[in-house]
Amino acid sequence: QVQLVESGGGLVQAGGSLRLSCAASARTFRGYAMGWFRQAPGKEREFVAAIGWSGLNTYYADSVKGRFTISRDNARNTVYLQMNSLKAEDTAVYYCASRLSAGVAGQENEYYYWGQGTQVTVSS
Asked: CA 63, CA 89: separation in Å to the nearest integer?
């Protein structure tokens, strides 16, 4: 069964931190790069971060570089997004996605499987 389940979202004050998790089924995780995207109200979904299958290669949107860190635990089929120094403009629904490839990518149409999303709200 194809499954990506995000968790860890919530309400946090500006400057605070959250860690998102995405638990995947083996079918959607093993051998694949993983990514995080987000969609704010009234806006299109945008790329946030990606990590290759080995975990050695990562790729970030300029807007989150230096504040967010993507990581993965291949033994647990889980990918994480550590978000620090959060800003009001980080408020969005955050989605986890997996590619049918081991390498990182930043385009939405390069990802095949998607989770349902988790809400992150940053109060200013």
From this structure: 10
If you average pLDDT over every residue of the chain, what do you get?
Answer: 95
Rounded to the nearest angstrom, the gap between the alpha carbon of residue 106 and the centroid of all alpha carbons in its chain is 11
Residue 29 CB contacts under 8 Å (≥ 6 apart), including other chains: 74, 77, 79, 98
Sheet holding 78-83, edge to edge: 4-7, 18-24, 78-83, 68-73
Q: What is the C-alpha to C-alpha distance for residues 42 and 59, in angstroms, rounded to an integer?
A: 25
Residue 72 bridge partners (DSSP) = 79
Burial of 8 (0-12, 13-18, 19+ CB in 10 A): middle
Could you read off the pLDDT of 79-102 as tens digits, one per residue? 999 999 999 999 999 999 999 899
